[in-house]
Design a protein that fits this description.
The structure holds two protein chains of two kinds. Chain A is an all-alpha fold. Chain A has a domain of about 160 residues: Cytochrome C Oxidase, Chain A. Chain A has 15 helices and no strands. Chain A is globular, with a radius of gyration of 21 Å. About 0% of the residues of chain A have low confidence. Helix content of chain B is about 30%, strand content about 10%. The longest helix of chain B has 17 residues. Chain B has a single domain, classed as Cytochrome c-like domain (Cytochrome Bc1 Complex, Chain D, domain 2, Orthogonal Bundle). Chain B is built from two helices and four strands; from the N terminus they run E-E-H-H-E-E. Chain B has a two-stranded antiparallel sheet. By secondary structure, chain B is an alpha+beta fold. The model of chain B has no long low-confidence stretch (mean pLDDT about 90). Chain B starts with 10 loop residues before the first strand and ends with a strand. Chain B is elongated. The chains are: A mainly alpha, B alpha+beta. At the A-B interface, helix 2, helix 7, helix 9 and helix 11 of A face strand 1, strand 2 and helix 2 of B.
Chain lengths: ~425, ~90
């Protein structure tokens, strides 16, 4: 059996993306039509179906990126039998998890609300991934920055995924504050670990497009890596500013978040150069998605830094500003990098000319996401003001007042769904045949 | 709470879903408290389904909400901002 390791995971991930977008749209429908699927599924099933599938799109996509990147750089193949076994375990886990959600058989913590037995196939799949990729990484003596990022991401995912299940031990589960602190520490670090893999992939793709291949070994790239690693380990404090924990957690969270200004200023500094390089480079879709990522990194990092200031966080915490941040980063950053990888490795642009619906899909995705993001922030700020208002207004009254924002969010969500459908269809239809 | 995935809609300390209200201090809320919680759990709302919970499940949820309430306050109005931009309890 001839298996292309990266392709297997990237195509599966793309199918999961379409499923995630479908459940996202259904979830959003319940905001406007409360009785929609209320008895059949309800929001308690629709939300985890959307969120878990989106997370699996990112994790399986990141796995595909690492396989493609490592195999191309080392010019060696990972074991296809092991990667196939890894894939089978993921499919078993995903089907089991979907079954849990459809049958409302919940367990666990937010974002991982499935029965604990599905942890084991995921864990074994991850160990197989490590076994399959780390020897190839070790075969190269001087690692480019993306090797370090992939290695760090893979390793930290394992640690934080296990940490995610500390609640199964009574000591952690029986104290609500300890339980929630760990849960939100883990959520921050898990995102940090797959960000390492995806940012590493972005550096790899940039190096691939650069004839001199200077990015992977540059001091700047390495300083970004160390800062990212520092943030991965310590930048979760802003999730729990309101929890009654030790003050030092808040101080560290605040301080570490402020180090992100370095990233932010660097992005602004590079802005002009970036625009020039976009003009000079060929207009391939793989590059266009990386260029779009830069814009979304700028917007989301600006938002994240502001949200990390406790005085601002007081207004934004528990509001749709947090949703805007989550959507902006998962769609704007993670998904753009993954789509760039899909276009690099899966899409055969040589078969014929690029169809017009690709341009439409690309811009529909960007414009819809921007409207979606801005309106979520608008809804969040409105709720934030309500949370701090002295006049006691009922929650339901406040939510009714947000109906115009929810209508715009829903319409832009339809735009996102159509764009994702068009992109996935185009990629899958014009797969490279080797 | 995890069994019925309450966190998909509700929050504790502002962490969780966004469709329903934060439940951290609902137990001690002067206009809500145990009676309203029981009523909501029994009849549901426009968006919240009726879960047909057994009495022991209702008691377990009430006990959980009581202990969550005893841990601290989640209302942002309970905090003040100092000159460094940090927040502290009033």
């Amino acid at each position: 059996m001839k298996i292309e390791n990266g392709k297997l995971f990237l195509i599966t991930a793309l199918i999961l993306l379409v499923c995630a977008a479908s459940f996202g749209l259904l979830s959003a429908t319940t905001y406007l039509f409360p009785y929609f699927l209320k008895e059949e599924l309800g929001f308690s099933s629709l939300r985890p179906l959307h969120v878990s599938l989106a997370i699996f799109w990112i994790i399986l996509g990141a796995t595909g990126c690492v396989y493609y990147g490592i195999e191309e750089y080392t010019e060696k193949k990972c074991n296809p039998t092991i990667s196939f076994l890894q894939w089978v375990l993921w499919i078993i886990a995903i089907l089991g998890i979907m079954n849990n959600y459809f049958t409302k058989d919940f367990e666990g913590r937010e974002y991982w609300e499935f029965r604990t037995e599905w942890v084991f196939p995921i864990l074994i799949a991850w160990l197989l991934f490590m076994y399959n990729t780390i020897p190839l990484l070790k075969s190269i003596k001087k690692w480019p920055v993306y090797f370090w990022m992939w290695f760090t991401g893979i390793l930290f995912f394992l640690f934080t995924f296990l940490e995610n299940y500390l609640w199964t031990i009574p000591y952690f589960r029986e104290n609500i504050i300890i339980d929630m602190t760990i849960q939100w520490k883990v959520n921050g670090s898990l995102v940090g670990s797959w960000n390492q893999i995806l940012y590493g992939t972005a550096f790899f793709l940039m190096d691939k497009n650069d004839d001199k291949k200077t990015i992977g070994g540059s001091k700047l790239a390495f300083s970004m890596y160390f800062l990212g690693l520092f943030n991965l380990m310590f930048n979760w404090g802003h999730h729990i500013y309101t929890l009654p924990t030790e003050n030092y957690i808040r101080y560290i969270g605040y301080f570490v978040s402020m180090t992100e200004w370095v990233f932010f200023i660097k992005i602004v500094w590079n802005w002009r150069k970036e625009i020039k390089s976009i003009k000079n480079l060929n207009r391939s879709y793989s590059y266009k998605f990386i260029a779009a990522t830069n814009v979304w990194v700028f917007l989301n990092m600006g938002q994240a830094i502001l949200m990390s200031i406790p005085a601002v966080n007081l207004y934004t915490h528990g509001t749709h500003v947090t949703v805007a941040h989550a959507m902006g980063t998962t769609i704007g950053i993670n998904s753009m990098i993954l789509l760039s990888t899909c276009f690099t490795y899966l899409y055969n642009s040589k078969q014929s000319t690029i169809p017009n619906n690709m341009h439409l899909a690309f811009w529909l995705l960007q414009v819809s996401l921007f409207i979606f993001w801005i309106t979520l922030n608008w809804a969040g700020i409105t709720k934030g003001i309500w949370q701090l208002s002295i006049e006691p207004i009922q929650f339901s009254e406040m939510m009714n007042g947000l109906r115009p924002q929810f209508q715009i969010i829903y319409l832009s969500g339809i735009g996102l769904f159509i764009a994702i459908l068009l992109l996935a269809y185009s990629i899958l239809r014009k797969k490279k045949i080797r | 709470m995890a069994k019925y995935n309450c966190q998909s809609c509700h929050q504790l300390y502002g962490l969780g879903g966004y469709l329903g209200p934060d439940l951290t201090n609902i137990y001690s809320h002067p206009e809500k408290g145990e009676t309203l919680i029981r009523a909501m759990l029994k009849s549901g709302t426009r968006q919240m389904p009726e879960f047909n919970l057994k009495e022991d499940e209702i008691l377990a949820i009430l006990e959980f909400l009581k202990s969550a309430d005893a841990c601290g306050k989640a209302d942002p109005r309970e905090f003040k901002v100092n000159t460094l931009g940090l927040t502290e309890k009033k």
